[in-house]
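FYI - complex with tryptophan, inputs then prediction.
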Amino acid sequence: MARVFSGIQPSGELHIGNYLGAVQNWVKLQYQHDCLFCVVDLHAITQPYDPATLAQRSLDMAIGLFASGIEPARAIVFVQSHVSEHTELNWLLNTVTPLGELERQTQFKDKSQRQESVPAGLLNYPVLQAADVLLYEATLVPVGEDQLQHLELMREIARRWNARFANGFAFPEPQALLSTAKRVLGLDGQAKMSKSLGNTIGLLDPPETIWEKLKPAATDPARVTRKDPGNPDICNIFTIHHGFSPPDTLKLVAHNCRTAGWGCLDCKRVLADNMIAALAPIRERAAVLQADPRTVTDLLRAGADRARAIARRTMDRVRRRMGFLGTPEA
Ligand code: TRP
């Protein structure tokens, strides 16, 4: 069985963009592969953040993952900072990572432009990401397109470490597993859906909130009046429909959009009903977990224990091959 690793930042809210673009696929992958899913809190601190809310955001993200259908019996779910081997391997991999490659990462360039003082951690973000995956010798990494450059660098780091140190043990070169889902934009129809931009529908939003947020959401900009025909192919609401409505509904929606048979609100009402129905069981499971955070932290502790057992084996091999003096019991 192939090993799968993926990570998600503890933004505090799992939204329908995360769900349709990533988490729904993770739920499927857990039936086919040996999966690890990680709440990457160490990555989250590379940008300005509030330490007072970090722990709760990690917990909420884990609740979102479990409520979405990731089963602790099938996949290892854990919080990155609970397994200190991530930071240890990160340091070791720093020594084989070319600085120029880090400086060329578009994510680094974008994020560093938005900060007055750029911390070295932001530059080294992709090295930590490489450590995440290589620590478990994972070969499949489900990610969005925006992570492809990080994956390319991850392979480069593996190759460089292997060229210098491999001896019986070598890191496999991980492959991206690109999601086939159409990318959902934020409700503004402009930027990607993101909690920090305030353009999301949360996976756990109550029905009234879903409807309140959908009503003013951007549609085909050329459709100004109720009588204008629309083009569903360029409408973000239609993209979201794909995630929640069955094929016959999609056909009906597209037809009524093109012929102006329906107004955008009619289309959104159908979407809201389907979305509310699809998310209801997730909200119910989340409510149970929210009422019992102890169970969630226990699950995360067990997940970290299982992850650590694999990570330690890798680190023993890595340390030995890099030539460190062993500790007495080793
Ligand atoms: N950088 C990823 C993102 O922003 C999150 C991430 C961290 C990740 N470590 C990972 C994804 C390892 C895949 C594998 O989406």
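The domain at 3-184+293-322 is CATH 3.40.50.620 (Rossmann fold). The first helix runs from residue 16 to 29.
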